[in-house]
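Reopening closed ticket. The problem is back. First fold of the pair:
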Amino acid sequence: MTATPDHDPADEEEAPETGPLRRCIATREVGPKERMIRFVLGPERVLVPDLAGKLPGRGMWLSARGDVLEGAVSRGAFNRAARGPVTLPSDLRARIEDGLRARIRDLLGLARRAGQAVSGWQAAREWLQAGRAGLLVQASDGSPAERERFGGRHLPAVSPLTAAELGVVFGRDHAVHVVVAPGRLAEAIRVEAERLAGIAVTRPERGI
């Protein structure tokens, strides 16, 4: 979008970062901040993904979609929003993906230590049948037939990590099925998994 004398799109970014909605600097669409990624300028005006949304500085918000990120980079959206030159890391997309995967692993670890998540076919099925499940997390590289046989069609399901990555969280070689109890941790994992699915070069398959 080209600025006109009476309207500079960057002016819209000056509003305080309050409330549940944010405006994407690339598409100009307003949406829930949970579906976006915040960026700030670090030292020497290097662009920093603020995945937790807590770093100091005026945030630049972008919809958590790979095509939107690519468009923002190619069309200079960060420069316009920052009102000046911005240094973009060459591996920006990979940093975002790696950061989101790390956040998901950390959240799953918290859920496991709090007794709010279990892995493995037997334990996960018991939680599922007992109505203790709020979110189903299945390995992105798991067998589609195996994931289908597990069940849980009524549950929100995400597949952000491989079986090996899930296994590390739960202290085993691999884990295909993870059930998380209803609550804030389950919701946080779902949000991060959806942001990752939007931004990833190859979107993980969903578990069901």
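Second fold of the pair, where the issue appears:
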Amino acid sequence: MRIARFSIDGNVAFGVVEGDAATDGGPFLDIIKGHPFAEFERSGQRVPLDKVRLLPPVLPNKVIGIGRNYPEHAKELGNEVPDVPVTFFKPSTSVTGPGDPIAYPSFSQEVHHEAELAVVIGRMCREVPRERAHEVVLGYTCANDVTARDVQRREPQWARAKGFDTSCPLGPWVETDVDPGDLAIMCTVNGEQRQLGRTSEMVRSVEDLIVHITEAMTLLPGDVILTGTPAGVGPLNVGDEVAVTIEGIGTLTNKVIKRG
């Protein structure tokens, strides 16, 4: 099931994405009653997907990022794979949606894309045992962990490098029925392939990351875990269009603009 968050005529709602161009005249949203973090009903009210504005699929209380979780990415930046996961936060104000602009920060001259699988938490949890980790997941979406690489190199805390406004595009929706263990993940810039990997290359799995994070903190419905990026990260410039595509989920596209 693909669950999208969207706005139409000034109203915000969730809906299940259904249909395709071949058989239904184009995809549409079946608006749901309530929200996807509890039992919900479909209203039967349908809206064409191309008539709405897709929003970030969730509004997380916190986004927890994982660094150096793909060996080749760690290597390309001159780092070793760490003994324990490298964790960092991106604030809620960094989150932006599909089609929304990425505003190039004025304090950086080297901004990079990082295509990532994002885990969306479905219920409040802490100290989750590995065998039950799947029970706390609502689903998965595409993410771009946009990073001011020059700032990351000179500041030991990554708060500014990875937490600036619009540095966390998410979308286009949450896919609830996909196995995250071996999915193709790709990033293109202006149609040119930059990153191509598989989630099976991750040092630590989704289950491992949920266990590690919830040992320390409570996760809330809508919180997001960024699982790391494969090799091939590189620069973004004003005017670029960057797209993250994950097998079985969809494509997240954003354009880079000058920060106003």
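Update: turned out to be a display glitch only; the data is intact. The helical segments are 21-24, 71-76, 149-154, 159-163, 206-214. The chain is about 10% helix and 40% strand. Please close again.
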